[in-house]
Write a structure and sequence with these properties.
The complex is a heterotrimer of chains A (464), B (395) and C (265). With 464 residues, chain A is of the alpha/beta class. Helices cover 50% and strands 9% of the residues of chain A. Chain A is globular and about 55 Å long. Chain B has a domain at 13-159: 3-Layer(aba) Sandwich (Rossmann fold), CATH 3.40.50.11890. The radius of gyration of chain B is 21 Å and the shape is globular. In chain B, the strands form 2 sheets. In chain B, strands 2-1-3-4 form a 4-stranded parallel β-sheet, with helices on both faces. Chain B has a 4-stranded parallel β-sheet with strand order 6-5-7-8, sandwiched between helices. Chain B has helices at residues 4-25, 40-45, 59-66, 75-86, 90-93, 105-118, 134-155, 161-186, 194-203, 209-227, 254-261, 288-296, 313-324, 339-342, 345-354, 371-394, and strands spanning 30-34, 49-52, 97-101, 121-125, 240-245, 265-269, 329-335, 359-364. In chain B, strand 3, helix 6 (105-118) and strand 4 (121-125) form a beta-alpha-beta unit. Chain C has helices spanning 39-54, 83-94, 134-144, 148-155, 169-181, 186-206, 224-234, 248-262, and strands spanning 6-12, 16-23, 26-34, 61-67, 79-80, 100-104, 109-114, 120-125, 214-217. The longest helix of chain C is centred in the C-terminal third of the chain and has 21 residues, at 186-206. The chains are: A alpha/beta (464), B alpha/beta (395), C alpha/beta (265). Chain A binds chain C through residues 58, 135-136, 138-139, 141-143, 145-147, 149-150, 154, 413, 443-447, 449-451, and chain C through 129, 160-166, 168, 171, 174-175, 177-178, 181-182, 192, 195-196, 199-200, 202-204, 206-207.
Amino acid sequence: MSVSGNVFRYPEEIRDDFLQTADIQFRDGSKASPAEVWHYLTEIGPKKYPHIYDYSNYYGRKISGDVTLPFSLKHNYLIMTMDERMTKAKQNGIPVVFVQGGQSVDPYYAAGAIALRPASVGIWASCQHEGLNLNQEEVRRANQKEKAYRAISFEVCQSAGYENIQEGTVPVDMIAPYSCLRCSDVSYGLEAHRHGKRKDVKLFLADYPLDHQKDKEWAITYFAENIRRLIESIDELTGGKTTAEDLRKEIKLHNEGRRLAMEIADLWWSAEVPPTNGKDRRDLFQMGGMELHGDPEASLSLLREAKGYIAERVKKGQKGFGVSDNPVRIFVCGSCVFPNEYRIEEVGGIVVGNDNHWSDITTIVEEDGDPFYNLAKAVLSYPYEQSIKERAKWTVEQIKRSRADGVLFLYNWGCNTQSAVARALVDEIKRESGVPTLIIEHEQQGTQSEQLQNRVNAFVEMLK
Amino acid sequence: MALKTLEIIKKRLEERPKEIEKARREGQKVVGWQGYNIPEEIIYALGLIPVRIGVGGDDRMVEIGARYISTKNCVFVRETVGLFAENNDPYVQNTDILAFDATCLQTYRTAEIIQYYFNKEVLILGVPRNFYWPEAKVYFTKEVEYFTRRLEKQAGKKLNYQILADTIGLYDRIRNAIVTIYTYQAAAGNYLSWEETYDLIHAGYYLDRREYLSLLEQVLAELREKQGQPFIEAVEGEARIFLSGSVLPPGDKKLIKIIQEVGGRIVGDDLWSGLIPYLDVKIPENSLQGLAVGYLNRTPHGALPYLDLDTDRRIKRLKELIQTFKAQGVIYHTLRYCDPYTFKAKETKDILQKEGIPLLEIHTEYAGSDFEAIRTRVEAFVEMLKNRYDEEVAV
Amino acid sequence: MANVSAFAGVDVGSLGTKTVILVDGEIAGYSILRTGINTEENGLHGLETALENAGLKREDLKYIVATGYGRISAPYADKTVTEITCHAKGAHYLHPQTRTIIDMGGQDCKAIRLDEDGNVTDFAMNDKCAAGTGRFLEVMANVFKVSLDELGPLSLRATEVLPVSSTCTVFAESETVSLLARGERPENIIIGIHHAIANRVGGMFSRVGIESDVFFSGGVAKNIGMRKALEDVLKVKIVEPKKDPQLVGAIGAAVIAQNSWKRGR
């Protein structure tokens, strides 16, 4: 039963075309045919996860209605099968490592593990509960989060899966993020696990050095050593021995994903009218990070297929579903949160890009030479992790390429390190690009009130 | 019970800003620094004047700072930014170069903001989070070397290693003096309170370090004469309190005053604005590497994560200090949005509970609006400690 | 009545002033008044009213203990003690098996652990956050245009729990307004709010550890919805209070007054 009284169904008319599309290729060599995907999305999904099919605009994660984009359907399939796929991988002895958003995952996969960021772990946990409507699912989520606040502090901006890991609902084997400047909760959230009841979960921190790190040889060497130790720690779990060649191969694979995402972005941004809606665009760009589905090969097969569809829409001048004519183009900066794209589209805007995640996706790793050093150097060059001026310079480039009309800096309640530079970064962006900006504090725990929406709407109206 | 030397120190602190102004006119440069892992010896040995900047307790300054940094940063960093925005503090006005370390990410952001808005020359010292690794010591040594090269440029001269050796000696004596004074303040029949000791430490943020040492030694001489050999023991009717948690910088006396007002006696701390930076410092050799390793091997700052609870040196030291100072309870002070300490509050409480040490967390900011609320908590805590003590005596 | 030895406990809280008179260990009279601006007068007025209620005179009072925020302006008191210690003594007096007290008052909420003699062994209180306080519920009652007393019963009429994730007064208010704007049923939002508060204060209370029997005191303890939500979230049974739960602090203060007088201090 839907809370909004509005349930999404994939229309039968698109079925035949969809069945002609490519298989999803998985890392373990298996495949999912479009017929299987279709069956899941139309028969199994609606029964198992009614909340995902809730078709209210208030629900920022609702299914995109753009049904002629096969990657969008396949993405939903991959999200809904997260629990099944992870359980299968675990049964095959593949360790699951918890990481952070906005970091590359090449070394984890090179060592034979699966790397999941907080949002993916949240999806995995959510998939273990069947038959919940949207309200029930959100209450469940909030209750879970509260457990983490109890154990750590209610000032933790996002509990980073703490509750699910500690309760064992998501059986991760290791927690091993990069520390990064992006978020100070990464280190403290990781440290908090040492006092938890789960003693079998391995803890590791890839120590990200700060301050002009990419220009300091000793910082790169130090981070390369961190990657080496990270891989060794995963090897202890698998009993394997990861070689430099394994890492090089993995980097090449992930570079392909990153390059594809950038090519797709260029296509998307070059289009007169946005070829997809904001939700599909965000998912698509983010696939280039290769961690969204817990399976880089699956993400890659979606990206490969998507590129052609986007190119065709751009050529035909076809607009994404739900996008208004001449929408106001918004670029979103700041923390790991985003506004409800559907509601922005309702009032005549569209989100054309985000800096978070995109920063690591646009950082291609050098393929020749020592892969540890190359990866370390690339990771330390993430634009998002640089000084205010450098980060702003890169952001302005993205704003120009995406032809954004306005910049929204959104930081999460309790996000110390992004909120700290919100004003400085926005001042610098304004100075360098002349684009209007707005800073909004995203409310506690990811809820989005009408007040927040009001401010976003007013900003869109102003830019019209 | 005030000691004579404390009066002298008070007077010298009043005179100090003018003195620094004069030194600057004569060509000396002032390095204002903030953080936990900056080896101040290098600054001093290069003939630069080190001043540890950052004060607390002024909500108006916090508001000014929040215009540049955000309300989701702790009040200490907001006030630091406020100090530079207003530019009235004599030490801030007289700072030529700023040095910040990357121990706490919010302090790092503070440096970025000050650099961006107030055009200050800022030197950052990178600090490893996996500080216990040999590779981290190599990285930190390189950072200290790079830091030194930039300081040398500012000083217009190369670091002289004979002077560095003398400076390390001077600083070792300062550290020893402070540690000894702590024993006196915690003893029975003390002539110096914890609060006075704390002020004494903060005086060392500003005074010339050579003069500071001689003043500390005078304090010690007075204490020896009046108090004799210090003996730490709990006296009936006392509620002996140990302070832990977030920074309590000069000027932030709200909690300290409340504890004293309701009849608690502070006997020790492991604050980074208190005793802890002076403990366990062993510089293994007269070199930049020696300094780097010596600093990293101290009791680590709470902002540096450590992933194994059983071997955590910070917690081990906390337990030892509680014993040394014969404290009966811990008041764990956390500033809002000071995640390094706030996130560890429950953990610390659980650990100390196993040792039979009660812990009260006070989560606060500089605004005075929660004064009464804090008083109630602290007073109840003191009532509880005294009651426990009464029972022990009765049994 | 000759030679009456009466003892008074005065609890001047942020919203209410509560006074209890104890004679021979029994409650002889009490009063509950709304706290006004003059703290000292509030306490004195409370005392007079309670004395009247007990049929006693001021001279009968041998010892007065003041507690609550107003204790610092209580020159009439022989001693002042924090409400934390008082709540422990009060709950112990009413229900000696009490090991945990959950107290939700006007601007504070707290969890207190006590031993078999009613001594405090640990406690935790909310900080600046108003979650779980009477003040917070007042703000919410205002949003729904109902009186504070109606909130609890309304929440029991809910058909489903709506997600209200914030317990920050400001955020929760804006979330509530948003849910109303979307046409949600008020009782479903109200139960969501109670649920969120129980979750948040439950978290705070878990820091001291909850052990049975659990005693619920303070003005908010009269709210049946809150009581039920707490039982759900904490998975404990809350004991039925024999007296008005708002009086617990004042009862404890009166008990301490009696003990102090007997011990001659």
